[in-house]
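Entry for the shared binder. Reason: the reviewer on the internal report wants the predicted structure included alongside the sequence.
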Amino acid sequence: MCPYAPWYQHAYRHGAVATRETQQRMQAWYASRAAGPVSNVLSFGGGVNGIGVTSGTPKVYLVFYGSQWTSGGDPQAAAAYLQSLFTGIGTGGEQWSGTMTQYCDGERVAKGATSCPAGAPHVGYPRAGLLAGVWFDGSAASPANATAAQLAQEAVNAARHFGNTSADSNRYALYFIVSPSGVHPDGFGTTGGFCGWHDFTSSSFGDIAYANLPYVSDLGTSCGANFVNRGAAGALDGFSIVGGHEYAEILTDQNPAGGWANAQTGEENADECAWIAAGQGASANVSMGNGAYAMQSTWSNDTNECEISHAIL
């Protein structure tokens, strides 16, 4: 395993978005050790607790973690931007989400499969809207250095807050634990080398899928500021790129590593297409029903390349 990867010695950091500098170090390390071309094809992990992908209509819950959100902890107005982003996904005929709909799970899908058999349930497309709830949890300040266990507990707290207290109600629920500016969840900005990651935790409410989404603009261009758009228009590019990255990966690997990942590298669909600035699969503005957002492409097995747009299956 690459010693520069954010998940090195931190196995719970599934689908971690490496900072741009960390990504460059990882690519150099892989290139120096490659015996030949490495395939980007994703294969099915067989499911964990019967769950591989979000094989139904996904619902996103945004959890703004800590009292700082209403007391100066959101200098870039990221909370409003993220609510708009997740309201927009699935609207206006956008096909960025289409790439994920080719992936599937269920008893018809063999472990190691690289395509889906007829009749297998696929990742759903959120035609009726994606954002299911928003919670500003101001019950206490977000920790200066929240641990992975604290982030997982906040996801469970969110499930309780939203009334999702059964395994069925959490089967297609995705919780984003968004930290305010100035804190370092799981070492963000200090030792982690990442911009975000996702995982799941078991609870009395069933398995809870969640993402650790730090205040990525605290790291500026390292986590995507102005990656697509110049000036003030691109100040929040990192939030939509990193947020979209983790959303796409939860959809296709909801209970890691039971979903779709690269058997050689362990990378997920968005990892394989991170920080592409030009050419096929380059990050770009994606038009949705309520505006355009900077998004990255994700890996498509059926076209064998990174896709920013794909037919909805």
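Summary line for the report: The mean pLDDT is 97.
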